[in-house]
Design a protein that fits this description.
Layout (H helix, E strand, L loop, with lengths): L3 E3 L2 H13 L4 E6 L5 H13 L2 E6 L19 H10 L4 E3 L3 H4 L25 H16 L3 E5 L3 H13 L5 E5 L19 H6 L2 H14 L5 H12 L5 E9 L14 E9 L2 E9 L2
Parallel strand pairs: 1-4, 2-3, 2-5, 3-4, 5-6
Antiparallel strand pairs: 7-8, 8-9
Length: 283
């Protein structure tokens, strides 16, 4: 089966009906396009575990804040189609905004508590937009399995909790972060970094590693471990730190003391580009 592009809800449901009726496993990789090595990892794992693989490509306006440029987000439909074809994707669902939101939406999905720390204060409304569009995609496609990257750990926790709280019949699969050779987490936004900014960008990963190393050496006070990471970020004056926190891996709440597995999570700005990353670690 060659990769097929569908753009309407009715069409994607029609194409998937034979798979549903024969109880085959449908997998979904939700994306906003501009596909890269991180998406490739998601797609490759999904391909091994499903009978029919759907990649959604939709730049979702609901998850962009008022100061975030929705129109500037990279769109490369031809390259994405070729990318999916090489990776043996069955269906690409690439709806227009009017297809997903034909009228102003009066309904949204809000996951409390998990969305309060970390990226929450810096991107108001973002996680509601993510949860709402993912809930719609789950309802439209009805996959048994859906694949998300660990790079967006807070988003991953939001989706897992939404699925649990709403009793959605889908297994959320977390896929490890893909990195460049210098440790920078692969992201669609990396292409906007200037050469100088790109050279600075791996400092976030090094900062997370410094905090992780402190924990591995027996530092259990989160404040002390954070200091180790922040000291690395302070070495580059071009970097603006939004946060570097040590949180519990399920609900993303900042911790004072380490008693088990934690995520070291950080966000920085280099120029106009915002970068996030995290590492799972344990004492």
């Amino acid at each position: 089966m060659s990769t097929e592009l569908v753009q309407t809800i009715a069409d994607v449901r029609h194409r998937l009906e034979p798979f549903h009726s024969s109880h085959q496993v449908i997998g979904l990789v939700p994306t906003m396009g501009a596909l890269h090595a991180g998406h490739e990892s998601l797609i490759q794992q999904a391909r091994k575990e499903t009978d029919c693989l759907v990649v959604s490509i939709f730049v979702n306006p609901l998850q962009f804040g008022p100061k975030e440029d929705y129109t500037r987000y990279p769109r490369m439909p031809k390259a994405d189609l070729d990318f999916c074809g090489i990776l043996d994707v069955d269906l690409i669902f690439a709806p227009e905004v009017e297809e997903m939101y034909p009228t102003p939406s009066l309904t949204s999905v809000d996951v409390a508590r998990i969305t309060d720390p970390l990226c929450g204060p810096f991107r108001p409304g973002h996680f509601s937009g993510v949860a709402t569009v993912v809930a719609k995609l789950f309802h439209i496609i009805q996959p048994q399995r859906a694949y998300f990257g660990e790079k967006d750990a807070q988003q991953l926790s939001v989706i897992k909790r939404m699925v649990s709280d709403l009793n959605l019949a889908v297994t959320v699969v977390a896929v490890p972060t893909v990195r460049e050779l210098d440790g920078l987490a692969v992201s669609s936004r990396n292409q906007y970094l200037s050469p100088d900014e790109r050279r600075s960008a791996p400092i976030l990963y090094r900062a997370l590693q410094a905090a992780q190393q402190a924990i591995a050496e027996g530092v259990l006070d989160c404040g002390e471990a954070r200091k180790r990471g922040l000291a690395v970020l302070e070495q580059d004056q071009s970097v603006k730190v939004e946060y570097l926190e040590i949180v519990d891996p399920e609900e993303m709440q900042p911790l004072e003391r380490i008693t088990g597995p934690v995520r070291v999570a950080g966000a920085i700005r280099i120029g106009t580009i915002r970068l996030i990353d995290n590492l799972l670690t344990a004492p």
